[in-house]
Amino acid sequence: MVLETLFVTTAAKTIGIVGSTLWLIPLILAGLTYVNYDRLDPEAPVIDARILDKDYDFVVVGGGSAGAVVASRLSEVPDWKVLLLEAGPDENEISDVPSLAAYLQLSKLDWTYKTEYTGRACMGMKSGRCNWPRGKVLGGSSVLNYMLYVRGNRHDYDLWEQLGNPGWNYDNVLRYFKKSEDNRNPYLTQTPYHEKGGLLTVQESPWRTPLVVAFLEAGLEMGYPIRDINGAEQAGFMIAQGTIRRGSRCSTGKAFLRPIRLRKNIHIALNSHVTRVLINPTTMRAFGVEFIRNGKKQVVLARKEVILAAGAINTPQILMVSGVGPKRELRKHGIPVLRDLPVGENLQDHVGMGGLTFRIDRPVSIVQDRFQAFPMTMQYILRQTGPMTTLGGVEGLAFVNTYLGNRSWPDIQFHMAPASVNSDAGARVRKVLGLTDELYDAVYKPIANQDVYTLMPLLLRPRSRGWVRLRDKNPLSPPLIHANYFDDPIDIKTLVEGAKIAINISKARAFEKFGSRLHSIPFPNCAEHEFRSDAYWECHIRTISMTIYHPVGTCKMGPEWDQGAVVDPWLRVYGVKGLRIIDASIMPTIPSGNTNAPTIMVGEKGADMVKEDWMTNRQSVNSERQF
User: Which UniProt keywords apply (predicted)?
Assistant: First the structure.
């Protein structure tokens, strides 16, 4: 997570030798704020349509992890005209570099959202609020994330079907995971759980430290196998796989949109911020969208459907400002109520214990001052390997069980990285996390640039539920995000058990040769608790409550009798014809693992549902259910 800081100005000369516009990277790392991303690659094919038609068959709102998939797949039907509206700009060469993930956060490619203060979490962050980066760029959060490819547990999807959503069980969704996948690890493509030849490239980073090997060996010592965590069983340890291709990030924009950019029946409009869905209040049919592009308000019509794919934060905001949402919330802001639905409820996110740091004596971890820019940069540019190909710094993944869970459905995930908050001497990671100076200076500054590794316990199935609300009726205002972490006490109890397991992993024989030991400077705000006690670990978790940016569930999928549902199992909005949602917001419960791959799966399955409905003339009328 800290390789982002390793470039220095010398790299400019290196990159300039090979004639690449990547020479801008050192300038960004030197702290320049204003960068003209449009000039980073002047020879790249134009993907931004300058002139739009008045109407299309389908208007897809949001070009992120799901929206890029939906637009690409719908444009496979040559008779359909598809428009994809994305609020942000195109990707750039900086986003291509896997190790630079954190440098995209808090940039113009990020919505820069923050959670609201609760006093129960994020206490070590400025103003007690966690940063929630979300991608405002073609490819969405698949451009900002750490590229980890994790599908979740088979029980997650079987539960979706048990909740009244036919067709969403594991066996059905597995084929959509495989449909996208181009897995380049031969030992996996020989199994029935993976595929090669799809549009989305998945592989291991070509570079790793010896610490990840020790991590796998430690798992074996604890009785967990080294296994494909996306295969038959999930509990176990594995070298992380990610959405990278030849050492570069493979976002959904690169995977699903670049190959079809010359199709005549799809237009992509960048920097197009959708402000509302146009809905006829008499017929209750969505017939188009209103958006702002380059400062001008525009309207485009949809002959068949408007498809919202703006994500778990923006999709509910767009719906509410359009008059679809909780009656009380809309009336509070003076928005006419077209359909009373529980939009914005059921918010779920994976929250983890950040900052758990283990010191070592051998020079094998990622330390800013150790890497030389010239050879490292040449290694990446000429051979697509080296430290710059790491998945944001994460090398190993594991799924384990606390006594509160069960063996077949782990409740804790570990992200293992050969670095921690101190590894870049406070240059970037502390800013991305939003840590207070008091906390950083007291705990991490004394070990700045020293060799460490981290194990981050992540709560896989939180019981707590948050919500998204409108700040006001202005569609350009950021929404209110209430993560509501640790509202249910079982959540933090489970994470405390995860912390204990992490410490046991660090004590394994495999880590002894590195001199592994827990960093023992206590958090200032937790000093009243005995260090290493359950009370101390709970305080630590509440202090660095680390999201890894997996919000889902705010437009819940469910059957007609589910009073918490916004869309039916075919992802059609209840009571509004011609309006569908295909993104992470439809997930009734959060998958047990990183959510990018499941969101892409939702895009694949949702696109097939649209095709099936319209190509078989089976567009059934949505339920007129009242709430």
Answer: FAD, Flavoprotein
Q: Where are the strands (E) in 528-627, listed by range? A: 545-547, 579-581
Q: What are the residue ranges spanned by the domains of the chain?
A: 51-91+137-205+251-346+551-627, 110-128+210-239+351-547
Within 10 Å of residue 18's Cβ, how many Cβ atoms?
12
- pTM, two decimals, is 0.92
Is position 550 annotated as part of the catalytic site? yes
Q: Is the pLDDT of residue 339 over 50?
A: yes
Query: pLDDT digit string (tens) for 230-252?
Result: 999 999 999 999 999 999 999 99
Q: What is the DSSP letter of 208?
A: -
Task: Tell me the C-alpha distance between 538 and 259, whole Å.
Answer: 48
Answer yes or no: is 274 a known binding residue: yes
The predicted model gives 587-592 an average pLDDT of 98
CATH topology of domain 51-91+137-205+251-346+551-627: FAD/NAD(P)-binding domain (3.50.50)
CATH topology of domain 110-128+210-239+351-547: Glucose Oxidase; domain 3 (3.30.560)
Rounded-to-integer distance, Cα 597 and Cα 620, Å? 29
Nearest-5° Cα angle at 40, 38 to 41: 95
CA distances, 525 to each of 369, 536, 540 (Å): 30, 10, 9
Arithmetic mean of pLDDT over the chain = 90
Catalytic option among 273, 482, 519, 550:
550
Rounded to an integer, the average pLDDT of 285-292 is: 98
What DSSP letter does each residue of 21-49 carry, written as one string?
GGGHHHHHHTT-----GGGS-TTSPP-S-
* H helix intervals, 163-265: 170-180, 186-189, 210-221, 252
Helix (H) or strand (E) holding 82: strand 82-85
Euclidean distance between CA atoms 44 and 150, whole angstroms = 31
